[in-house]
UniProtKB/TrEMBL annotation:
DNA-binding found in the keyword field: yes
All copies of domain Bacterial transcriptional activator, residue ranges: 99-237
Single Gene Ontology MF annotation: DNA binding
Protein name: DNA-binding transcriptional activator of the SARP family
SMART domains the UniProt entry points to: BTAD
Source species: Geodermatophilus obscurus
């Protein structure tokens, strides 16, 4: 179990290193090379020193890359002693260090394939919804950023569907709209929104969500929704009129669908 006094590395929405007992300014001012070293180890398992040096300093001679790695390790050890363990030729984060990306991975895996009979699915903490290291363009960051984005989208849609099945429609809408905000043109996320509204018995809200997406893809991509999307609402009589009419501008009559306030909270899903 993670200790609240353990160091914590945050990579979503930007790099942050939190070390108990240390002034936050000392970790916020870490050189970018040191930040890249910590981030690389958070996203890897047990990379060899040679591989780490090559990944982080690919455009310099090998000897210089190894020198930069030694310098980064020395600087990091002054601010966060013991954060990284060196075992032979391998590097790794010390046991117990908490990493938000790993927490996101764990949550997503539970959401997509929950244990049999488990009902404890939930919308993730907002801290797990940011992009991985925005503004970083290293190839190893770009690949992991896209992998995490796809994993999170699938997990949010899976959580929304499961919460709707359990009758927890307000929470289901929170998860579905989180997916829509992350990728506004992703049809499967909008289909999830429509399904939740229909499961709650809100035919008008379901059709309004459909209209919103139909107008969006018409304006942005010049295409209609897929048949899979249209089938969700084809039983609603008003749909015949909606399908025969030209999509309206998003800023006009069609507005973003809004869910009912959450019972007991008085607030709308974020």
């Amino acid at each position: 179990m993670d200790s609240p006094s353990a160091p914590r590395v945050r990579l979503l929405d930007g790099f942050r290193l939190e070390v108990p007992g240390r002034d936050r300014r000392s970790t916020a001012d870490l050189p970018h090379g040191v930040q890249r070293l910590v981030a690389h180890l958070c996203l890897s398992l047990r990379p060899a020193r040679n591989a780490t040096a090559g990944h982080l300093w690919p455009d310099v001679p090998e000897a210089q890359a190894h020198g930069s790695l030694r310098s980064a390790l020395w600087r990091l050890n002054k601010v966060a002693p013991g954060l990284i363990e060196v075992s032979g030729s391998a590097l790794r984060l010390a046991a117990g260090v908490r990493v938000d990306v790993r927490e996101l991975n764990d949550w997503a895996q539970r959401a997509i394939a929950p244990p049999v009979g488990a009902d404890d699915v939930a919308v993730p903490d907002a801290a797990l919804l940011g992009d991985l290291l925005p503004g970083w363009y290293d190839e190893w960051v770009l690949l992991e950023r896209e992998r995490l984005r796809q994993l999170r989208m699938q997990a949010l849609e899976a959580v929304a569907a499961r919460l709707a099945f359990l009758g927890r429609h307000c929470e289901a809408l929170e998860a579905a709209y989180a997916a829509v905000r992350a990728e506004p043109l992703r049809e499967s996320a909008h289909r999830t929104v429509v399904r939740v509204h229909l499961a709650q018995g809100n035919l008008a809200e379901g059709l309004r969500a459909y209209d919103f997406f139909r107008t969006l893809v018409h304006e942005e991509l010049g295409v209609p929704p897929t048949e899979q999307m249209t089938r969700l609402v084809q039983h609603i009589p008003r749909l015949r009129r909606a399908l025969s009419a030209e999509p309206r501008p998003l800023g006009a009559a069609v507005v973003r669908p809004v869910a009912d306030t959450c019972p007991g909270t008085g607030r709308r899903p974020s």
